[in-house]
Amino acid sequence: MRDGAEASGDAGGPPLVGIGALTPAQDHVRDERRPGIVHLGLGAFHRSHQAWYTQHVASDEEPWGIAAFTGRRPDQAELLARQNAVYTLITRAADGDTAEFIDAVIEAHDGADTARWREALADPRTGVVTLTVTEAAYHRAADGGIDVESPVVRGDLALLRDGLSDTACTTAPGRLLDGLRARRDASGGPLAVVCCDNLTDNGRVVRDVVMSLAEAADPALAAWILSTVSFVSSMVDRITPATTEGDRADALALTGFDDAAVVVAEPFAEWVLSGDFPAGRPAWETAGAHFVDDLEPYEQRKLWLLNAGHSLLAYLGLHLGHETIDEAMRDPRCTEPLERLWDEAARELPLPAAEIAQARASLQERFENPRIRHRLRQIASDGSVKLPVRVVDPLRRRLARGEPIGDGAATALAAWWLHVTRQRSLVSDAAAASLPPSATVSDVLALVAPGLDRDAAVEAAVTAAAERILQLPSSAPTPTTTGVPA
Ligand SMILES: NC(=O)c1ccc[n+]([C@@H]2O[C@H](COP(=O)([O-])OP(=O)(O)OC[C@H]3O[C@@H](n4cnc5c(N)ncnc54)[C@H](O)[C@@H]3O)[C@@H](O)[C@H]2O)c1
Ligand SMILES: O=P(O)(O)OC[C@@H](O)[C@@H](O)[C@H](O)[C@H](O)CO
Q: 227 with 82, same domain?
């Protein structure tokens, strides 16, 4: 673990404190960087995390640069390209802000720019591809392969079978496969694909969806990928809320540069990776990253404590009228079930008690940071994909020992049921949105915990937890289907 940057400023002093003399990005003199990394999903997190680590590599070799592509819309690439791809990262501690310019991204493109995407993947100087495209973007079916029932996947499959089309694939696995084919055709050589999305064994997730798509579209390409491409798993951590207009004003006050692509993140950052890099990699360990043989305990600690806690606070907090994580952390109606959820996760974690206690204490402090305004609505999105890895995985282990579901997990699942059925205007989750407002506990369990929907004890405990939540006095009106408070 390491802190992302030293924060300056006193708790009692002015809220914004800059560091050193910063040059506006227009005048920024870039380091020479070799074009070795291609990134897909140019969101806030890539810019606060992988780009930050790449920026902070301390090594004598020529620094690596990132050619970054957006996942769905061109906007972020256009904004960044207008400022030479240099942007401000504000590190926001509880007692003040610091700012730095990041220039590790050397090119920013629309992900639909097929020609540049193929060229970047085919370039033999490219050794690493990183991904932050959200959990839902992998289109996984229940068997771990790609979901061929999805219309967008079927569309990509048709394009990939055609092989000659210049039309961009729509899905992230489709784009990746299209780029890998360009690399094979150009004899670009081996490559490492590093997933940085919040999923368990995320390298295997990417490999399985890409391989199943390749086998359906182009079996010879599938064989080449199997022998040439390494899929690296990584645990990634740095709380990075969506940027607001206020953040842009803060960046201007700190640096004098009116940055349209500013990113704000907490001081804490962690990156643990596992897998091979057959074409080399930046010395990310010199910036604090760790390379391990067994990633599982790190992933489980992060997903079952941090992310599970976030999801519980998001659904329960929204129900109680809160807007952000720090607000929910000031409400014992949220923190009591959070402690129970963490107690339950702790029993499943293969880690020493002292390490778990330290992680919990650190999380408590991070969640309480009143200046990281992490909106519950952002965290609440795509619960149908997030809850299985965050809450249901540890729950299944507990049930397998013959123990009943705990109050923490029951409250998290109950709060999600209430979110999906009673806060329809706030639901951002394609699978959950397809459920009717009359969906039962069993219906929502079937989506996130197949099999447990037929477990009468689990269903009864989640229903009881929902009744307890409904009896809590609400801090603010709960939006209804129409968004109009009841
Ligand atoms: N923000 C964080 O605190 C944080 C921390 C750890 C991990 N992550 C991981 O990073 C992901 C992105 O977070 P962010 O903060 O950058 O979000 P963001 O909204 O700023 O960016 C999301 C990026 O993913 C792309 N994308 C979204 N849906 C897609 C789809 N269906 N297909 C292809 N691309 C798609 C978008 O175009 C965008 O480039 C998260 O979902 C999570 O898995 C985020
Ligand atoms: O980014 P998501 O959508 O996977 O999840 C929302 C948050 O739980 C997540 O972004 C955390 O802030 C992050 O995982 C901290 O490292």
A: yes
**To the nearest 10°, the Cα dihedral for 51, 52, 56, 62?**
10
Q: How far apart, in Å, are the Cα atoms of 110 and each of 182, 405, 408, 417? A: 18, 45, 42, 36
Residues 243 and 111 placed together within one structural domain of the fold: yes
pLDDT in tens, 454-480: 999 999 999 999 999 999 987 655 444
From the CB of residue 222, how many other CB atoms can be counted at a distance below 10 Å? 18
Question: How many angstroms separate the CA atoms of 372 and 218, rounded?
Answer: 46
**Residue 283, C-beta contacts closer than 8 angstroms, at least 6 positions apart:** 57, 58, 59, 61
Structural domain of residue 397, as residue ranges?
297-471
DSSP state of 167: S
Regarding whether 378 and 276 lie in a shared domain, the answer is: no
Say whether both 116 and 217 belong to one domain: yes
Ligand 1 nearest atom to the CA of residue 45, by list position = 16
Distance 198 CA to ligand 2 centre (A): 7
Residue to probe by mutation, ligand 2, list 52, 198, 272, most atoms within 8 Å of CB: 198
What is the predicted ipTM?
0.99
Among the three residues 241, 260, 293, which one is the final residue of a domain in this structure?
Answer: 293
pLDDT, mean over the chain? 92
Largest CA distance in the chain: 65
Q: Compute the distance from residue 196 Cα to the ligand 1 centre, in Å.
A: 9
Confidence (pTM): 0.93
368 pLDDT above the threshold of 90: yes
